[in-house]
Specification:
Structural class: alpha/beta
Largest sheet: 5 strands, parallel
Helix content: 25-40%
Oligomer: single chain
Number of strands: 15
Distance between the termini: 54 Å
Shape: elongated
Length: 298
Amino acid sequence: TLTVRLGDLDIRSRIHDQASGWDSTGVHLFLGADGTLPPAKVEATSPDFDGIWFADSPCAKAWSDFDVAVGSGVFAIVDEFQFNSNQTVILETGNPEAVYVDNDVKVDANATLQTPSANVYYAGNYAGPVFPDSPFVPSRKTLYGDVNNDCKLDPLELLELRRIVSGVLPYDSVFDLDCDGLITAGTELARFKINVNNECDKWLELCGSCDWAPCCGVSAAGGGSGAEQPALTASDLALLAGEVMTSVEPAPFAQWVADSMSANQLVAALATLNALAADNAGTPSGIEFAAFAGLLEP
């Protein structure tokens, strides 16, 4: 337990440098203060991805639990150093910072919250007053790459990542696995493939169960709205073909792509791939398209 009394918890973090050395994993944060003193403050130290919380990313330095025991005093959650959301954000991720809590948040019933400048994301339960514009936000942890937070990875998320890596789309901090300001094939794309090919093992490592859906915070039926994914274009399929064929395990990777499609989408994708293979016959791309189509065949 880290107990902060009669003062502030100020961690002068810089997401890509100092913050990478700050690890609050398993530490219970206890904030106590005398109600007659100035507000007791906790400094945010992790990038704020607007509620997206990748449990396998080193960027989110989550506390185990967070207790605010200030009686009828005042407390504040602040983002005052470096990536301050109230100042001009310095380059790199472009994100303000936040506080992450693996389990529960408890706040004294009579406590007063000073206008916050940072969010607190928690995966457990909240017990305390209901504050206007509360920074306390329930959040579920998921695997890297699940940028829509529906507790599953799908080819459209892979395509977005692939476009960033290839330079078609600009840098997007939510895909920055290690918060180093770069999104590369060797780090981010490699982790996405690992998570697709070893989803069970990753959830077993993170929460002790291979049944990832309840662990992530959704019903066993899975996340998302159930709406059908849009049809993949020829350029989409070309990008996916390259990723599948260069994967360590191309067959399971292709199966994941196929399982993400409806029957009609799969038929359309196979027709497009076979046409691309014919149009590019005898070339490396043509061979790649044909091989990808063969792996997708039901």
